[in-house]
Amino acid sequence: MSTADTRRTLEQAIADFNAAFTDPERREASLRLYDDAIVLHGYPPGVEGLDGARGFYGQIWDALPDGRLIGEDLIADDDRIATRFRLTGTHEGAPLL
Questions:
Q1: Which of 53, 65, 47, 64 has its CA nearest to residue 28?
Q2: In a designed cystine with 10, which of 42, 57, 81, 92 is the match (CB 3.0 to 4.6 A)?
């Protein structure tokens, strides 16, 4: 697969994640992007593994039931990807971490 093809594939994966994250009926599906050993950097300490990610995002979904991710930047290099996004929503639940 070419670098351009890899980038398109990664961009599509992020777009699919954002769409599923935003749809309350598909939120759990957004976690399929992650490996079981995922470590979320830039979040509170201890957010490791798929169960950690599920718990962290569950708190966001509870606090922001209409939460929506908007992609800002995407950097892809070979099989690695980093993305910056904006989270919007109406805070209706418990305080976030």
A1: 53
A2: 81
Q: What is the pTM of this model?
A: 0.78
**Count of CA atoms in the C-beta half-sphere (13 A) of 81:** 20
pLDDT tens for the chain, 97 residues long, are 677 787 788 888 888 999 999 999 999 999 988 889 999 887 788 899 999 999 999 999 999 999 999 988 888 777 677 888 899 999 998 776 6
Answer yes or no: are the C-beta atoms of 57 and 31 closer than 8 Å. Answer: yes
Angle, alpha carbons 51-81-57 (nearest 5°): 30
